[in-house]
Amino acid sequence: MNDDTPAPYCSVLLIDDEAMAEDLIGYRLSQHADIRLRYDARAELAVSLCRETEATVVLVDLRMPGPDGFEVIRLLRAAPETDHVPIILLSSEDDADTKARAFALGANDYLVKWPEARELEARIRYHSGAYQARCQRDAAFLELRQREAELRASQAALHQAQKMEAIGQLTGGIAHDFNNVLQVIGGNLQLVKMIGGVNPQGLARVDNALNGVERGARLAAHLLAFARRQPLQAAVVALAPLLANMDDMLRRVLGAQAQVLTDLAPQLWHTEVDVSQLNNVILNLAINARDAMQGDGTLTIRARNVAAGAPLPDSQGACQCDYVLIEIADTGAGMPPEVLQRAFEPFFTTKPTGQGTGLGLSMAYGFVKQSGGEIALHSEVGHGTCVQIYLPRSHGTPAGAAPDTAAPLSGGVETILVVEDEDDVRAATADLLAALGYDVLSSADGEQAAHLIEDGAHIDLLFTDVVMPGRVSSLALSELVKRKLPQAQILFTSGYAEGVLAHDGKLPPGVHLLPKPYSAETLSARIRQLLHQRATASTAA
User: Fold this and answer.
1) If we measure between CA atoms, which residue out of 339, 338, 363 comes closest to residue 351?
2) Which of 38, 62, 147, 411 is the most core-located residue (most Cβ within 10 A)?
3) Residue from 426, 490, 497 nearest 453 by CA
4) DSSP state, 66?
5) Where are the alpha helices (DSSP H) in 246-325?
């Protein structure tokens, strides 16, 4: 039976004070091309020579001036990189005590000079093969440990992602109900102000309560942003002027003792993002930085282009597309690893009770993910924190600035159909619009509203909740209105759109959404804006 498997390559280091040894050993091994021999008389350099030749076997003479064979064994066994290299001691002494001492020091074999060629080759191959097998085994174990470490890291990342998703679903549902409750409270308080007859002390109480509604609305918005359930009204934006224009605002937030530095690379790419949400993210990160620096330090905002193929943060692979990277770095106290691991969780905070909701980073996480980007957090105790936000590049052209909707209350005489399944919300909204002069129709669901339209009711604007029970959805109702009353405008509202309107977290062009809770001023401004668009379109036609 022939074995055609090639033998492993052998690298033999021969250390002997007599050059004749090279000729004798070399002659015995000369017929074997897979055995490489290196001779050297410098026994004191045994370790470095072994590393240099990548020796798989060392042949060393016993009796030499200076370090002898025993000392060479000690040297090789004392060095971690050569402690397992096979050593064959060569000696003219066939003495049991000498052999025992050699093996006690760590020799693998003992040959009496000069061994027959076949025996020498066999022993070299045996020891070299065993050593190479050991190296392969050690490499396999090392790779296995690395794979196990990578698997544990992947499992931890998956567990964290699943936990964040579960928390996101929970918080999204809570925010939906919370926003409806806030709308009922806010709507009725606004009606009280509009109706009048309240003394100054009572008005102060109403305004105080409305401020509380606004705070609750911001809290719910942060929850929805983290849960990635907040429809983004994205637009192509030039980041450089946007970030530069935030400089003054950030200085006011950080206080007089802190310093703000802006480092924007030239020719920054555009990105498609909800500008108001991005402003909120940067503002929240700046507030976190202020608290971490205790009002005295440096906040640096950097931005640069990151081409496809560049590594993503936290070993997430390479960028699949072009990104714009925004970095917000502070010189604060930094975070220990156990805090860093939980930093993106909603309501997790290390601040004292009453000094923070723990939603700033979680809101940033949800917004960036929903925008198609990546976010990473780097921090070290005593060396500050850096938040990296990767936003996909857009090749579109930045749009002009949106009109300011924070206008005084204004009404009209048009007919508005309010569709809302929450009785208290529907009543408060209908009364508010009626107080502004509008002719108001109301329905508790899409099916009831569809019957009104089918029966010939004329409306100028449909104001409908997104998520309603019944057989007729808000989308189906809007399509019916478009067919029957093509001049009518459509304005959606929701405390939690649940992806009904949004695609990939973004509203399609031409879809108008007013998030709950909304103020009387915001509602009246949006309605007048849409009705003005209708009038302008009719005049142009």
Assistant:
1) 339
2) 62
3) 490
4) S
5) 247-254, 275-293
Instruction: List the beta strands (DSSP E) in 133-193.
Output: none
Cβ-Cβ contacts under 8 Å for 317 (sequence gap 6 or more): 311
pLDDT at residue number 401:
47
Q: Which residue, among 439, 419, 406, has the nearest Cα to 493 in the 3D structure?
A: 419
Q: Are 238 and 278 in contact (CB under 8 A)?
A: no
Q: Please tell me the distance from the alpha carbon of residue 467 to that of residue 464, in angstroms, as a whole number.
A: 9
**What's the CA gap between 500 and 493, in Å, rounded?**
12
From the CB of residue 122, how many other CB atoms can be counted at a distance below 10 Å?
Answer: 12
Give the residue among 321, 455, 467 at the shortest CA–CA distance from 394: 321
The pLDDT of residue 467: 80
pLDDT of residue 404: 45
- Which residue has tokens 């091994």? 29
Confidence of residue 358 (pLDDT cuts 50, 70, 90): low
Strands 235-238 and 270-273, by their bridges, are antiparallel
Q: Is 225 helix (H, G, I), strand (E, B) or coil?
A: helix
- CB within 8 A of 128, min separation 6: which ones? 8, 10, 11, 12, 56, 57, 86
Across 291-333, where does the E strand assignment appear? Answer: 298-306, 323-330
For residues 308 and 170, give the distance between their C-alpha atoms in angstroms, rounded to a whole number: 35
Q: Using CA atoms, how far apart are residues 60 and 515, in angstroms rounded to an integer?
A: 84
Strands 489-494 and 109-112: unpaired
Which two three-digit tokens encode residue 126? 């045996």
Interior CA angle at 354 toward 348 and 360, to 5°? 40
**Which one-letter DSSP state was computed for residue 10?**
E
**Cβ neighbours of residue 264 closer than 8 Å, sequence gap 6 or more:** 239, 240, 243, 244, 301, 302, 303
Q: Which token pair is 146?
A: 């690395």
pLDDT at 280: 79
Residue 502 amino acid letter: A
pTM of the model: 0.48
- Taking residues 243-249, what's their average pLDDT? 79
What backbone phi and psi angles, to 5 degrees, belong to 260? -115, 125
pLDDT at 109: 93
Q: What is the pLDDT of residue 466?
A: 85
Match 């930085």 to its residue by tokens.
289
- Cα–Cα dist 531/416, whole Å: 11
**pLDDT tens track for 359-401:** 567 778 877 887 888 888 888 888 899 999 999 998 888 865 4
Least Cα distance to 64 among 38, 44, 86 occurs for 44
CB count, 10 Å around CB of 71?
16
340 neighbors 334 (Cβ within 8 angstroms): no
| Measured CA distances, 231 to 277, 504, 514, 534 (Å) | 11, 9, 10, 24
- Ramachandran angles phi, psi of 308, nearest 5°: -55, 140
Is 505 strand, coil or helix? coil
Tens of pLDDT, residue by residue over 34-57, are 899 999 999 999 999 999 999 999
